[in-house]
Design brief:
The protein is built from nine helices and seven strands, in the order ααβαβαβαβαβαββαα. The chain folds into two domains: 2-50; 65-283, Vaccinia Virus protein VP39 (Rossmann fold), CATH 3.40.50. It has 300 residues and is α/β, with parallel strands linked by helices. The protein is 36% helix and 12% strand.
Amino acid sequence: MLENSGLKPSSRKKFARKFWNSFLPFRDLAENNQKLASLEAEVRQLRTLLADHLLEVRRENSSRDPRDLHRFEAQVCSQNGEDGVIAEIFRRIGVTHRVFLEIGVGDGTENNTAFLLAQGWTGFWIDGNPALNKRIPGSPVEKSIRYRIALVSEENVAGLAKELGVPPDLDFLSIDIDQNSYYAWRALRAWKPRALVIEYNAAIPPTLDWKVNYDPYKVHDGTNNYSASLKALENLGRELGYSLVHCELTGCNAFFVRDELVAEHFLAPFTAEQHYERARFPYIHRSAHRSSLLDPSSPA
């Protein structure tokens, strides 16, 4: 094309060089983006390896007593090690109807009860995420779950549970609605699960009873002004007839068992000071394949 431009050979070379050089910044940017993407992948891999190592060290140091639940933490569909802890709790205290209620389930693939469905449980989900309308119909667990799309408050949570038909003597309750989890549990005092898991605010020291001011319309803004301290949940649990038996290693969730079922199965004392785990949110990661709704097995 330049040959037919009427330019002298020397001018054509100069023009071509100038034209090529004009693309150098874009070429360098593309190369830098590739290098950055490669570096980010390496950082993610190193972060995963470091998290696995540190959590294993912590687990080993925390599991010298056979009643300690740390060594049972395992991840199938849960965000962290909750799946393994839930399985071990029910191995120790037994089950009745194998029925659960979980409040705050996301799109249904990563939560504390999806793996229970794979073990033949049935249950109820409540979440404000409309993705459930697409996730559940046609899924392997469609016949095992009833759900509602709703934003949960202290005022409506009991009504939602009644509408769904959640039995008062269910086996398991999970609450993770960030801002008002404490108040949701308090409003469900008529339901008496054998065990439950609820998120806590690990930014608050374990000796302090603190709750976020209740506002039914407020959602978590990403700050540490949310939920309740572990001591506040311990005290609420004691009022409702529950003992604090475990906190998982990343400092997200606290596990409670009904007082009459505790016996000698769990590590005492059942206090925030004993079971508190500080926030280790950088260690939250999926160490295997991405989660999904697993095929349910037949009840044992």
